[in-house]
Write a structure and sequence with these properties.
By secondary structure, this protein is α+β, with helices and mostly antiparallel strands. The chain has one domain: Glutaredoxin (3-Layer(aba) Sandwich), CATH 3.40.30. The protein is about 35% helix and about 25% strand. The protein has five helices and ten strands. Helix 2 runs parallel beside helix 5. It is globular and about 40 Å long. The N and C termini lie far apart (about 55 Å).
């Protein structure tokens, strides 16, 4: 096959991804509803949907984890891959956020869509990732539940009551995430 056709195909796919992401908007902000609180009396957002936490998934060490066990916490569900440059760009901010807010009911769930457990363990050690990392490679149903996932990173902020409060397409800064997380803690 002619290399020009391969390059043209890759360019067309890239243009399609950029077009879809710009049509969808880069992120949806957290909209706190002062009249609405969770059953614990904590702030809740004006959500259009509930997060699907009905999945069991393996972490990078092989342990099976039930995502429903995280209900009641503010979650940042981050879909990423070790080869993804923009994912690496936001990693230091995610590590700092988890360090700062993990004792206040905040958890980051790093779900790698393409990597195997061995690759994740080595990468996590090198980058000093301090939050739970999961192997999402063969978890298409999970990816579809939080989709569309058409590029990385994509992050979803989930309130304590399970409401999907924000969605980021592409990398976000520590400050962007922090503003949304603090509104829900």
């Amino acid at each position: 096959m002619n290399n020009r056709w391969i390059i043209a195909g890759v360019a067309a796919i890239g243009l399609g991804v950029l077009t879809v992401s710009s049509m969808m908007g880069r992120s949806t902000p957290v909209k706190i509803d002062p009249a609405k609180t969770s059953e614990r009396g904590t702030p809740s957002c004006k959500a259009e949907s509930q997060a699907n936490l009905g999945f069991k998934i393996k972490d990078m060490n092989g342990a099976t984890v039930n995502l429903a066990d995280y209900k009641g916490k503010v979650l940042l569900v981050n879909f990423w891959a070790t080869w993804c440059g923009p994912c690496k760009t936001e990693l230091p901010g995610l590590i700092a956020l988890y360090d700062e807010y993990k004792d206040k009911g905040f958890v980051i769930l790093g779900i790698s869509a393409d990597d195997d457990a061995e690759t994740l363990r080595a990468f996590s050690k090198e980058w000093k990732i301090n939050y739970p990392v999961f192997v999402g490679r063969d978890e298409q149903e999970l990816l579809d539940a939080y989709g569309p996932i058409f590029g990385y990173p994509i992050s979803v902020i989930v309130g304590r009551d399970g409401s999907v409060c924000a969605r980021h397409i592409g990398p976000a800064t520590k400050e962007e995430f922090e503003q949304e997380i603090k509104a829900l803690l």
